[in-house]
Amino acid sequence: MSAPLLLHVFPSFSVGGAQVRLAKLVNRFGQRWRHAVVALDGRTECLERIDAGVDFNVLPSPLRPGQSLPSRLLSIQAFLRQLRPDLLVTSNWGSIEWAMARLMTPSLPHLHTEDGFGPEESQGQFRRRILTRRAALRWSEVVVPSKILLRSATGQWRLPATQVHYIPNGLDLSQFQPRPDNAVGESLDPVIGTVAALRAEKNLPRLLRAASMLRQQGLRFRLAILGHGPEREPLDALVTALGLGDRVTFAGHVADPSAAYQGFDIFALSSDTEQMPFSILEAMASGLPIASTNAGDVAVMVSAANAPHVVRHDDTALAESLRPLLMDAALRRRLGGANRIKAEQDYDQEAMFQHHARLIERGCAAPEGRVSAVWRQGSV
Q1: Cβ-contact 14, 49 below 8 angstroms
Q2: What is the spatial distance between Cα 339 and Cα 35, in angstroms, rounded to a whole number?
Q3: What are the TM regions of this chain, as residue ranges (predicted)?
Q4: Domains and CATH numbers, the chain
Q5: pTM higher than 0.85 for the full model?
């Protein structure tokens, strides 16, 4: 018999946290399942992360510009009936129409992953989206990587707790290691590093303004920003306006950032909205202290010793979080070591893989007409 076919629907299959997580998952299990992906915006850069031995195909979206919602739902339903996947896997709000269309095909098991909210909902969820998720996901299994999302799913969305699964993101800890000697020589400036898409919700201007404050206080440092995105031009302009041209380096997109983390002394995150950012996990696994805004689960992700450096969404607060780390190499080593230990205890990717695999296998094993009964046989 053929391996079960999983249909993954993403708003985009460009390189991002959810897409990279899927690539790692399918690579881990190889030929255990067959995969098809629909990228609703047509972008498929994350295909480069899929191993050659995995049965993984890209399918065109059945949707056409200008279709009404009822017409879109009928197109999706026809697509699902023709493909006949064993499991539908959707990702985030951008794929919610597929969850809605699946309600017309109730025998098809459905697994929805929700990784967070876009910048438009950074100050609160839209009521229309709350109600839509409440209705569209009522008979689905839902995976969330953060406790904030867990509270949303069982609270505002009113989904049954037995159908919502908290699976923290995990990391291949062997790929991210502390450098052998984290001490910084007296003649060297400590390096503050960040890895982020250059998008508005990452609020890198906040980090640049905090850096300007630190420079005015006479502190020496360099700031390295890894990532690319639409905000690069205004960020360049802000660097010039703040007089930070000699302190700031934009390194662009780095396919494998593990080596870059070893060049950092401090990791900074300045986002307005996050859930469980991979960059924080990577920094922890690399033995770095972290200065961050209190976005998503960051305050509970880092070690207890590092938690005081997770601060409100404010330029001055972020500068004050960074200042003692710049001034004290021993403090950096202590917090970085505690973060590495926390990563080893809580965020190993194999545990994440196995949790996802059990949910997928349970969905694929659900006989037609008995989806709900099978899926509710215990939680993962």
Answers
A1: no
A2: 35
A3: none
A4: 5-170+348-375 (3.40.50.2000), 173-346 (3.40.50.2000)
A5: no
